[in-house]
Amino acid sequence: MFADDHCAPSPRGHVLLAPDRFRGALEAAEVARHLAAGLRRQRPELPVLAAPVADGGEGTVNAAVAAGWRRVPVEVCGPTGRPVTAALALNGDTAIVELAEAAGARRVPGGEPQPFGGTSLGAGQLMAHAVRLGVRRIVLGVGDAACADGGAGLVQGLGGRLLDALGRDLPPGGTALRSLHALDLRGLPDLSRIEVILAADGAGPLVGRGGTAMTQGLRLGAGREEARALDAGLRRWADLAEAAVRRPARERAGAGAGGGAGFAALAFLGAKNEPGVTFMLDLFGFAEKARDARLVVTGEGSLDVRALRGGASATVARAAARAGTPVVAVTERRSLTGERLRRARIQAAYTLTDIERDLDRCRRQAGSLLEQLTVAIAAEWLPPARAAAR
């Protein structure tokens, strides 16, 4: 644990829990739930407010529900073609659609990624359901996709058709796009009055050396030759799509996100690309919740140099600093020194591996370890009023 001795506990009201997920262990909402359980055991009289952080990837809908949004379950097509029950989050006239809900690794039998035949069709079906609900804004989070079809399935899920030279519908997947001959977009809904936001962080273009096939395709298990075939399919898709909608998008920021689903959102839906974490914090009203908080507890799986460049903890800490609220972080492991943490506006960091050094056991027991960390957090940052006065 690192703590800044010069930062005194705040005397204000509630404790705001705003962690990101611990990848491979817990979703953000689960992290917040364990932190809340531990804090309530230590200081049952303190109000605790959960506001899990989301970036558009897996767990975004759950984070929205934890922030008070309504879960709307929908039966859609999973990445392998099997039906799955996914969900979108709804708040007023805004819907959050999470690609991973319909086409993430947990929707694939055995968790095996689908770089060639996997489809994003279910995400398009979720969006189509949101349109039928009468929303005026759709936030599309495209992180953690288990497919790389360039968003072709998403367009099909919205009602578009992808046809081969004989006028037959193409089979799913990115490599099948090499046989794409024509698009029939007459079935797409009118989205002219619906704002579409693409929540994506740090994604490159759709095609080429830094594109979907050569980055996400390889990460999903494609070999070099297979990745080249996938890239050829995505190029064919981009050529016909951009000609059809007259909106170049393959090189735009976010186009390669979600196995290329970002491209489909930008080209066909006129989506506006927003940084995932920052946008979600604004969407969930983080600034207002932090303004009167006594303490903000954030966190993520690893606090390292990369986490300082747009990671959840650093983003939350900057937003909390603007509200004048101190921030502590919980993490599985960290490599940052105290000075770097202070520059990131994080006053203290509490690490699971300080309690359990075996990383595998640490991940399996992450929930109970997080609850143990709250003992130190409560003692150092949330003393009872009389103790704080002394």
Automatic annotation (TrEMBL):
EC annotation?
A: 2.7.1.31
Question: Is Cell membrane there in the keyword field?
Answer: no
**Organism superkingdom:** Bacteria
What keyword terms does UniProt attach to this protein? Answer: Kinase, Transferase
Give the molecular function GO annotations. Answer: glycerate kinase activity
Give one GO biological process term: organic acid phosphorylation
Q: Which PANTHER family match?
A: GLYCERATE KINASE
Family the entry assigns: Belongs to the glycerate kinase type-1 family.
User: What's the name of the protein?
Assistant: Glycerate kinase
